[in-house]
Description:
By secondary structure, the chain is of the alpha/beta class. Helix content is 30%, strand content 16%.
Amino acid sequence: MAKVELQITRRKFLQATAAGGAFALAGPGVGALQAAAAAPTLGPTWFREGEIKKSYSCCSMCPWSCGIIASTVNGRVYKVDGNPADPKSRGMLCGRGQGLVSFAYDPDRLQAPMVRTGERGEGKFQEVTWEEALDQSAEKLMAIADQYGPESIAVFGHTAGDFWFVDYFAQAWGTPNAAKPSASICTSPREEAATLTYGSGVGGHEPMDWEGLQCLTLIGSHIGEDARNTVMQDFANARARGMKVIVADPRFSQVAAKADYWLPVKPGTDTALLLAWINVFITEQRYDVEYVAEWTTGFDKLKAHVADMTPEWAAEITDVPAELIRETARVMADNLPRAAIMPGRHVTWYGNDTQRMRAIYIVNALLGAYGREGGIYFNKSPYIESYPHPPFTITGTSGGCSAEPGAESATLPEGPTGKVRADGGRTRFMRGATAMQELIEPMISGEPYPIKGLIVYGVNLLNSVPDTERTKEALRNLDFVLAIDVLPQEHVAWADMVMPEATSLERYDDLWTLPHKTPYIALREPAIEPMYETKPGWWIARELGLRMGLEKYFQWETIEEYLDARLMSIGSSIEKLREEDGVIVQKGKPYFEDYGDSSPFATPSGKIELYSEELALAGFDGVPAYEAVEEPPDGYFRLLYGRHPVHTFAKTQNTPLLNELNPENDLWLNAGMAEEMGIKNGDRVMVENQDGIVSGPIVVKATQRIRPDAVFMSHGFGQADARLTNADGKGASDAKLISRYAMDPICGGAGLRVNFVKLVKEA
Ligand code: SF4
């Protein structure tokens, strides 16, 4: 019965998306494809020859973590479906989620712990037992800490199980040098700007109140290419009922093709566009006057600041016609407060990103969107206690806001006692915190103090951190590198010890607890036993911790004991959670009326700060100013990058089913420029950046859908490791072409769109 319901739900999803525009989604029969890929030696009806068992978890193919129900037959996963009880998946999955089974059964997976036998980078290893791997790793890490202190060990983590290493192990061990790329090369500007402007971070689920939204504006957000399941559902439904859509983007993206207005803004000039919109709202009195009077501070300073920033002024800078700027501002204003700009996710672009994000939030405030139905609701975290462990000496989580302003300022967090994590919470200008890419420097120079050991969990290090050559230099320099991963990603060849992790279908993870309109808690339980010699991340972190003197933090014997201890705080248990379809939904406080007389804005003034005294006191602009960015030199294009809907970061390119759907990326090049250069659609070219780094070959897509001053490729391709049999050598790597970045002095994020490339026809 459950199976039939799930199939109907999926069909409804396909109908809904068809109504709103056809994004790339897995087609019918995906379950059968998964079964074939998962069990190529079994007959076509193998999954009917046993009892179907169901388990509850969250999809780990991207950080969105949609709730899933995994079906297994005779200890083999037969398919995954969206969990209808889960607020994110609502019974549906995106194409990447449908590839989860294929990811788990990828024959290229790491299968046993290994110790390095060749040079770093050669990828020569010998298998060892888990006892040997754990004992040797603990011994090496402890020796480094004895000589240089606990902070000399850095921990990088990403994806579903990173909590056990970056959040739990690192903070128990006492190193502040723990970081996630999701902060420093992705969301840190939007989180810092949100905290400065309205007193809280955006959170993992962007709080657009889709049900009533009447006008959505996107600046560099690519719904449909960035295939987050719930957002695609919400967008499709809202568009189908007539929501207006405005897209500002140098590229006519998939979502721009479904918009009412496309503004082909010149890269790097978005803040000028935003300031001109603000100018129109104010000069034409088209903002929410009552809301601004009651809930904001600094309006007069903002008004004076934008007085001359007319659409005509912005048109010169942005290449967007003044009339189009004026018209789109009016469309937004005509729909207030049910109009808003979506915060976006990867927003580390040019190094002045916190101020651009502040300008976005100021637009939303003038539209009266925060806390209003159809605008932007207030996220609320679900209530549940942490596992009762002794206090950590390091605090803060990436994107969180736990540190107090006014703490010390240093190039790096200084040491273990009472310090805040490198990429945690309030950032650089508040206390000199350090982003992930900056932790590379002390690995090379030893300044201001040495980092000599590195634990890398699930971060595709050479395909994410800017300046790959510098990262390799750091890896050469370290005393010990431990890589924990599912696949032999490129950086794994540089590790001294490799520990193979079980996939999310084979392991428990900590509960998924998400700030949301309806805050909720989801179970992440295994569907099958770990394959090969792999182990779950929680087990690896605990075993390492026990060997490194951290017994007091790892007092649970089993993961069930850990989870039940947490669930007990809300009167639940794993068993009860299973009975509730794997999800507990709590009540949110999404709108103003839920706050009574108190303010929902946790800023010093208790209001939305259009002018930031905090920034002004620290020597920055109190209201966002437009700053020109460097232009591409003659013969070069600005390198833009983004997503393909069936791939996540540099994680899924090797997954057999997803690789089949999209094996390599292509290079969007303006058709006029292509003609001028004698390059035809379908030609293969090499791409060379300003520092002489070359990547490719890559197929050219000559199109009118991109401005002449930029090229675009999807991220995650051009990987180089023969053990990745599907991904090796396919396409070009944007990550390797990003050899420089612009540091945002406010949030510490690394702006990545400051690289320029020229094209060289393949011989
Ligand atoms: S958006 Fe897609 S890949 Fe991401 S968690 Fe949801 S189903 Fe999985």
